[in-house]
Write a structure and sequence with these properties.
Elements: H1 3-14, E1 17-20, E2 26-29, E3 32-35, E4 37-41, E5 44-53, E6 74-77, E7 106-112, E8 121-127, H2 142-149, E9 152-156, H3 161-165, H4 176-191, E10 197-207, H5 209-219, E11 232-236, E12 246-247, H6 248-261, H7 268-277, H8 280-287, E13 302-303, H9 312-319, E14 327-333, H10 358-371, H11 381-391, H12 398-425, E15 429-434, H13 447-450, H14 456-461, H15 464-467, H16 479-497, E16 503-504, E17 507-508, E18 517-521, E19 526-529, H17 534-540
Helix pairs in contact: 1-16, 9-12, 10-12, 11-17
């Protein structure tokens, strides 16, 4: 290992940090003068500008309304994370605990210390995940990505759950969280030069719901006119797909049910006025139904006819040629479904169900399919046979069989369809399958139970594998994990900076449209032909078919 790499591994593993706010960095941006703080990780300085408002507080008449630009911020002290958007659960990834508040439409900017206006560094905007109902811009240590990759990193909050994705059709628009993201991207275009960034070199990076958001931004006709808001995309674990994107009528039905429980009218302007005045905590509580088999499922993006104009699977199949033209890294992890194969999300106790018979397996599959809104009729004997042939007794346990099913349905099959359709008419689509098992358990992300779990790529790319506390207190992070994380950070930031074809650990990363090569990210990376799980996807999830 090179001396400089040893230094970084040591520094990151120990996370020996100090923070200086007094006499900290100052940026004169078009929106105002912004004062930040400097965080030092050993000898690597990172300037942090935290809690910068990009939209007016979405309260009062602006609750359930399109975001409005915040405008000038004056002389702003931006040295603390502000607030998470209201949500029912704390994200398990949260490393910077902050309170919740409706006034949450803020963003954070990270840069390597010494960066100045005019440097025109590449910019990575990171959209957090969390099933569109939990998470925040403070969730991950993106300062590590900025420091080691020497890029500008921006992390915005966006509205979640009922406040971000309730669709009341003509009464109030849906997909507000996606519009929030878009407004944050406009803020970046207008202001990032002042921080030393290049608005013509913006990469949009998302994991899970963040990745699904990236694909929605790429697909949306709203983004096809005017200046491009981003120029490259990194998508880890998901695209906008049926089950994730729901019908607006379903969303309206849910909000009417909430209005009734709030003793509000259930239609018309009076309903909207009443729920706008409702206590936000009560609104969040009523929107979250732990009795549903998918306990993280509340409100999701909708087919609203505007941001998402039509059924997303058909849109990808038939209209990918008209999507935004961006280069991309896109892929999934080997064991995407292990976090989602139960009705529990604490990864303890009976989460890892003991499904012993084919009947128990199929009953569980039926509940999962209903909870995640898969358009599968599991009362049909032919469908049940296809599911059994594809998944039953194909792993070491029936729980892992179920995990393979749900991972395919939510993440892998939709991603495959997107890659195939998009790459037919767009160059520079670099697909991956993440297979490296983390050497050391972090929080409840125990590889012995979860395998190569959901969003593994992003945990390495943002340095979170290094920054998380280990299961054993005071145990240092694994050196091999650290080294692998540094290499993933390098490929991500090089991709943001350069138009050259990417490579990982000396292996060239092919363009999928030129031979269907897929990079398998492991300790020893390799290129394989074809996408993961395609046979299962064709048999069980044919509604994700790609363009012919």
């Amino acid at each position: 290992m090179k001396p400089r790499r040893r230094l970084f591994v040591f520094a990151l593993a120990l996370m020996i940090c100090s923070v200086r706010a007094e006499d900290g960095p100052k940026v004169d941006a078009p929106v105002g003068t912004i004062h930040g703080r400097t965080r030092t990780i050993d000898d690597v300085g990172v300037d942090e500008f935290l809690g910068i408002p990009y939209a007016r507080p979405p309260i009062g008449k602006l609750r359930f309304a399109l975001p409005a630009p915040f405008g000038p911020v004056g002389n702003l002290r931006a040295t603390e994370f502000i607030a998470r958007c209201p949500q029912p659960l704390l994200s398990p990834l949260l490393q910077n605990p902050v309170p919740t508040a409706e006034d949450c439409l803020h963003l954070n900017v990270f840069r390597k210390s010494g960066t100045k206006q005019g440097d025109a560094k590449a910019v990575i905007v990171v959209l957090h995940g969390g099933a569109f109902c939990i998470g925040s811009a403070a969730d991950t240590n993106t300062g590590i990505l900025s420091a080691l990759g020497d890029v500008i990193v921006v992390t915005p909050n966006y509205r979640l759950g009922v406040l971000g994705f309730a669709d009341m059709k003509d009464l109030a628009p849906g997909n507000l969280g996606l519009y929030d993201q878009r407004l944050a991207l406009e803020w970046v275009q207008d202001n990032i030069r002042a921080f030393g960034g290049n608005p013509d070199k913006v990469t949009l990076f998302g994991a899970s719901a963040g990745s699904m958001s990236v694909s929605a931004q790429i697909n949306s006709p709203v983004n096809r006119e005017g200046r491009p808001l981003f120029h490259a995309a990194i998508m880890d674990a998901g695209v906008a797909a049926p089950g994730i994107v729901v019908d607006a009528d379903l969303s309206l039905k849910r909000i009417k049910s909430i209005a009734e429980k709030l003793a509000c009218p259930t239609k018309g302007p009076k309903m909207l006025d009443c729920i706008r005045k409702a206590d936000v905590n009560e609104l969040i509580k009523l929107s979250y139904n732990p009795e549903e088999y998918s306990p993280i499922y509340t409100f999701h993006p909708t087919v609203d006819g505007k941001f998402i104009p039509r059924d997303v699977a058909k849109d990808v199949r038939d209209n990918a040629k008209g999507f935004m033209k961006v280069k991309m890294l896109i892929g999934t992890s080997k064991d995407e479904g292990t976090m989602f194969a139960s009705n529990r999300i604490d990864f303890t106790g009976d989460f890892f169900m003991n499904l012993t018979t084919e009947g128990e397996f199929l009953d569980h599959i039926g509940r999962l399919a209903a909870g995640f809104k898969f358009p599968l009729n599991l009362t049909d004997s032919d469908v049940r046979r296809k599911v059994t042939d594809a998944y039953y007794q194909k792993s070491s346990s029936r729980f892992l069989d179920a995990a393979a099913f749900v991972g395919d349905g939510i993440f892998i099959c939709p991603t495959n369809a997107f890659v195939r359709s998009y790459s037919k008419t767009h160059p520079n689509v670099h697909a991956f399958r993440f297979e490296r098992v983390v050497r050391q358990a972090n929080f409840f992300f125990d590889p012995k139970k979860l395998g190569v779990f959901h969003t593994s790529f992003t945990l390495y790319a943002c340095g979170s594998v290094i920054a998380f506390e280990t299961v054993t207190p005071n145990e240092p992070a694994n050196a091999e994990d650290n080294a692998f994380s540094l290499d993933v950070i390098q490929v991500v930031t090089n991709f943001a900076k350069s138009d050259a074809s990417p490579e990982f650990r000396g292996v060239k990363w092919p363009d999928f449209g030129k031979g269907e090569g897929v990079m398998v990210l492991d300790e020893k990376p390799r290129v394989e032909k074809g996408l993961f799980s395609e046979d299962r996807c064709e048999k069980v999830f044919p509604f994700f078919e790609s363009a012919p």
